[in-house]
């Protein structure tokens, strides 16, 4: 199985996603956890986790309100 991320802007358009072919869901989630702020700063509004091309879940990339 291959786990990858797809990034989208606020309008739902796909944006360039660095290579993220990872071997497990945990590896994929850790990978995004280390980079999501950088992606958000570059215009990503959502990340979609894919398992062999099938959407597992979608997550908004915005910091929690303080």
How would you briefly describe this protein structure?
The chain has 66 residues and is α+β, with helices and mostly antiparallel strands. Helices cover 26% and strands 32% of the residues.
Provide key terms for this protein.
66 residues, alpha+beta, four-stranded antiparallel beta sheet, 4 strands, 32% strand, globular
Written account of the structure:
This protein is of the alpha+beta class and 66 residues long. 26% of the residues lie in helices and 32% in strands. The protein has one helix and four strands. A four-stranded antiparallel beta sheet has the order 2-1-3-4, covered by helices on one side. β3 and β4 (54-60) form a beta hairpin.
Write the layout of secondary structure elements.
Blueprint: E1 3-8, E2 14-15, H1 25-41, E3 46-51, E4 54-60
Antiparallel strand pairs: 1-2, 1-3, 3-4
Q: What would you call the structural class?
A: alpha+beta
What low-confidence regions span 5 or more consecutive residues with pLDDT below 50?
Answer: none
Helix content: 25-40%
Q: Specify the overall morphology.
A: globular
**Mean pLDDT score, rounded?**
90
Number of helices, where a helix is a run of at least 4 consecutive DSSP H or I residues: 1
Strand arrangement in the largest pleated sheet: 2-1-3-4
Instruction: Provide the β-strand percentage band.
Output: 25-35%
N to C succession of SSEs: EEHEE
Cα radius of gyration in angstroms:
11 Å
Taking the alpha carbons of the first and last residues, their distance comes to 38 Å
Number of strands: 4
Biggest β-sheet strands, sense, barrel: 4 strands, antiparallel
